[in-house]
Each structure stands twice: as C-alpha cells, then as structure tokens.
Amino acid sequence: MTQTIRSASDLRKSFLNKLSEQKYPSEPKGLYEPVDYILQIGGKRVRPVLALLGAQLFGADPEEAMPAALAVEIFHNFTLLHDDIMDASPLRRGQATVHEKWDVNTGILSGDLMLIKAYEALAKTPRAAAVPQMLQVFNRVATGVCEGQQYDVDFETRHAVTIEEYLKMIELKTAVLLGGALQLGALAGGANAKAAENAYEFGRLTGVAFQLQDDLLDIFGTETQIGKAVGNDIVRNKKTFLYLKALEASSPEVRAELEKFYESTPVDAAAKVTRVTQLMRELSIPGLVAKLRDSIQQDAYAHLEATGASAERQAPLRELAESLLQRQN
Question: Do 114 and 72 form a contact (C-beta atoms < 8 A)?
Fold first, then answer.
C-alpha cells in the first residue's frame, strides 16, 4: 500500500501529541517542573517537524524519527533556557522565562538535565544501527550551536565584524540545527550517508536564508509581521548582515554616520531607527539582502533535488521553507 505523504502541519500535530505524553518525575519538583514548563509554552516546532519530514523524504514512516524529533526540540529549548539567562530576558513566547519564574540556579540545572534528556530520546531511535552515526551528527550540531552563541556574544562588544564572520555565526547559531534535524530524521528513516548529507545542506542553507529574512523583517517589516516593534536590531546596535552590508556599500561620510549611530543608546531611539532605516533604503540594502536570501535558497533546493527523493516527497519541505521565508509573524 502506498504511504500517504503527510504535510508539515499534520506532522506538527503528531509531534505535539507525543510531546504532551512526555512525563517527568514529580520529584525533585524544582528540577523537573521547569523542563515541562518550557517545553509546553509554545513555539513553532519547526525543528522536530523537519526531523519527521527527513524520514518521510526517504520513504520511511515519519514516526521512525519521532525520538530524533523529541531530541532536537528538547535540545533547542535547552539552548533557549540558557540563552535567556545570558540575555537576562524576562519573557519567552509571551510567558515568564524559567529563571524569572524560578531562579537562575534552577534555570542552569534544569537546562543541564534537558541536554541529558535529549540524548536519552535520541537513543530510542527504532533503527538501532543508525544511532551511532546520529550521535555523531548530534554532537557536531550541538557543538556548532554553542560556538555560534559564543560568536554572537563576542560580536556585541567587538567594533569590527566582517560579513563573512556574521554569516558564519548565523549558520552555527541557527542554521546547523535546522540542517541537523533533517539529517537526523533522514538517518532514522534509513537514508544513506550522502543523501542524508544533502538533506542537511538543504536545511542549513534554508536556515541561513531564514535568518537573513528575519533580519530584513526586523527593520523593514511591520509590527503585525514580527509581533514586536520594528527596528529592535538597530536599537540594540546589533551588527546584522544589513548593517554590515550598509557599511560596505556606503561612502566614508555615511559610514561614519552609521557607526556613530551604532555606538549610541539614546533614551528615545525613534529618531535613530528612522534615520538608519532611511540610510539603508538609500543604499538599496533591502534588495541586496533579498537577492542573497533567494540565491541561498535556490542552492538549498539544489541539495534537496540531490537527495534523489521524489517531487511528491520533496513538496512538504519546499512548502515549509517557503512559509519560513514569507512568514508573517
């Protein structure tokens, strides 16, 4: 019987059902309750869905990748829990962060436990022969995410950051986990190493394109699209691709003006946001970023084709990628 090809939204529902079934010990309450809390307060669940789609891409039942899906989602939320502590963020998905609801020590320890639980989930992959290679992939990806976070921290205090360095940072911090989720799902579904690597490259490149789109929307989107005030990256003096490209494309006078803005933290940042946005428009930065984003995504689709999967099995991944690049929130 021909297997029904399931959509990303359908697989998301299956994953959420599985996630709701996860039960943690009741004691010590201060250790396990925060883990359940952060996993249940929402999120787009893109990474676990990619893992499930990765198995389906190669003709396997997506359920074979459910342990991998749980592993990448637990790991992702572990990184968010610790990132929130590092950034002193009070809110996550509209709810109090773990360190705010409990305390910093709880956030650190519960986060550590989540990393352990991620490996525990991955080890439950039904295709046992694939687990050693999956562990290698998971270790590589997890290391990359940590490296990307450190680069992001370093860039906040560095005056000079190159475009190449920024692209490397977003690749590590964001894109490798998207690619890793797909590669883990592919391996869980029985794909060979080369095909699984092409799946990884599709996810990685899509992740870079997605982050460029995210940077673009932060400045040139609307509050309705991004769910927060536009220009937050400008207010925070964040050296995104848009800012770095603007420096590269500007005259010495404009470059000096931009650098001066990014060394200031005015109480009322509205005028700063307006002027920097105007300068970026005059330098045609939105079009340049969109062109690079689209070029990267086309490279991603070439890797998806190279997996050898049928067009029907590629379709849900293409649809998901397009929804990320054209997101409204």
Answer: no
The answer to whether residues 241 and 289 touch, using CB atoms and an 8 Å cutoff, is yes
- CA distance to 62, 168, 234, per residue, from 231 (Å): 39, 23, 5
Contacting residues for 78 by C-beta, under 8 A, at least 6 apart: 111, 114, 115, 118
Structure tokens at 146: 């940590």
pLDDT in tens, 48-65: 999 999 999 999 999 999
Find, among 247, 324, 320, the residue nearest to 293 by Cα: 324
Cβ count within 10 A of residue 167: 18
Structure tokens at 22: 């996860």
Burial 112-148 (b: 16+ CB within 10 A, else e): ebbeebbeebbeebebeebbeebeebbeebbebbeeb
- Give the angle 251-253-254 at the CA atoms, nearest 5°: 70
Separation between Cα atoms, residue 76 and residue 179, nearest integer Å:
13
In this prediction the pTM is 0.94
